[in-house]
Design a protein that fits this description.
This protein is 37% helix and 16% strand. The chain is an alpha/beta fold and 321 residues long. It is globular. The chain binds nicotinamide-adenine-dinucleotide (NAD) and uridine-5'-diphosphate (2 copies). Nicotinamide-adenine-dinucleotide binds at residues 9-10, 12-16, 34-39, 59-61, 74-78, 93, 97, 115, 117, 173, 175-176.
Length: 321
């Protein structure tokens, strides 16, 4: 048990709020820091009355002086629609946010876990992606603010580790979905489910032959927490994701089947620099963390669809940022 609070930046977001739930359930004290750029109080409202939960509205691009025992650094918009809305702020969030969290971790000697991403592999020539692959990322494209920001954050983690002896943990998260994604999040799983439930056309970008590997949120959080609890020499980077690989057409068909929707498919232009394929090699996570996902895409979509049915009746009109 960590004797000081655990800091979760981006704790009011999709993944961060699930992480806060798990940490509170395990008996930890949690300090949730978020500027509500894409997150919402709604995601952590059920924790607000708890004596071991504290919420702080703060932008991680500014220094933060608190006393904590561990840091999970998740603050950063994750959906292309939102990270491209204010790309300069996205890079600042990844880079200045990492520097501030590293400075904080150095001062209080806290272990720091960085939520990195499969996007560091860019549009990969190696398939599936192993951690040793350096990636193929456009440094000047519309996705670069996110991809290069996350790559620079990884560099900072490893340099603070080598230069200052900081205990770091880097997880490369592959596409994750589940309850609490915002209906207007803009990512593919939420778009397809919302479109299917509303009877609107399903928007396939490009031919729909591009692939992604989708991990259910509970599996992801388990992997992240195992990484935080792993021995100090396990710094990563480590892939956390579900190796089941699907084309966007296959995903659309599965969503139509599980929702019972008769929505039609419409084809729209493929966004610039959209990776053609993505699938994690999770050998390292299996070996070092004893972790592997347990929820198949079909099984994980069921509670996710139930959540979106409810969300569309209640807060769907609320802006995601
Ligand atoms: P999200 O957008 O739901 O959550 C991000 C949270 O960070 C939000 O609550 C947002 O308000 C907050 N935030 C953004 N900028 C901030 C700032 N400057 N200061 C403080 N808070 C800020 O996204 P998510 O899916 O929960 O992603 C969480 C983390 O995991 C991100 O770092 C993301 O890059 C990473 N990740 C997620 C996925 C995925 O598929 N969900 C995949 C790869 C990596
Ligand atoms: N920082 C912070 N909280 C702390 C300690 C540091 O936000 O508790 C910030 C600080 O503003 C600094 C950054 O972290 O800009 C990096 O800190 P570090 O000690 O590595 O560098 P320095 O202060 O020497 O620039
Ligand atoms: N996509 C799609 N229709 C949508 C939203 C996304 O076909 O309505 C595609 C997108 O072009 C990409 C894949 O789905 O090839 C995953 O997109 P997402 O934004 O969810 O994540 P990322 O591209 O960051 O992996």
């Amino acid at each position: 048990m960590v004797d000081k609070p655990i800091l979760v930046t981006g704790g009011a977001g999709f993944l961060g709020s699930h992480l806060c739930d798990r940490l509170i359930a395990a008996g930890h004290e949690v300090l949730c820091v978020d500027n509500f750029y894409t997150g919402a109080r709604r995601n952590i409202a059920h924790l607000l009355g708890r004596p071991n939960f504290e919420l702080c509205r703060h932008d991680v691009t500014f220094p933060l002086y608190v006393e904590v025992g561990q840091i999970y650094n998740l603050a950063c918009p994750a959906s292309p629609v939102h990270y491209q809305f204010d790309p300069v702020q996205t890079t600042k969030t990844s880079v200045h946010g990492a520097i501030n969290m590293l400075g904080l971790a150095k001062r209080v000697r806290a272990r720091l876990l960085q939520a990195s991403t499969s996007e560091v592999y860019g549009d990969p020539e190696v398939h599936p992606q192993r951690e040793g692959y350096w990636g193929r990322v456009n440094p000047v494209g519309i996705r670069s603010c996110y991809d290069e920001g996350k790559r620079c954050a990884e560099t900072l983690m490893f340099d603070y580790h080598r230069q200052h002896g900081l205990e770091i943990k880097v997880v490369r998260i592959f596409n994750t979905y589940g309850p609490r994604m915002h209906p207007n999040d803009g990512r593919v799983v939420s778009n397809f489910i919302v479109q299917a439930l509303k009877g609107e056309s399903i928007t396939i970008y490009g031919s729909g032959q591009q692939t992604r590997s989708f991990c259910y949120v509970d599996d992801l959080i388990e992997g992240m927490m195992r990484m935080m609890g792993s021995p100090a020499d396990m710094v990563g980077p480590v892939n956390i994701g579900n190796p089941g690989e699907f084309t966007m057409l296959e995903l659309a068909e599965l969503v139509l089947k599980l929702t019972g929707s008769r929505s039609k498919l419409v084809f729209q232009p493929l966004p610039e620099d959209d990776p053609r394929q993505r699938c994690p090699d999770i050998g390292l996570a299996r070996e070092k963390l004893g972790w592997a996902p347990t929820v198949s895409l079909a099984d994980g979509l069921v509670p996710t669809i139930a959540y979106f049915r409810e969300a569309l009746q209640t807060f769907a009109g609320a802006p995601p940022r």
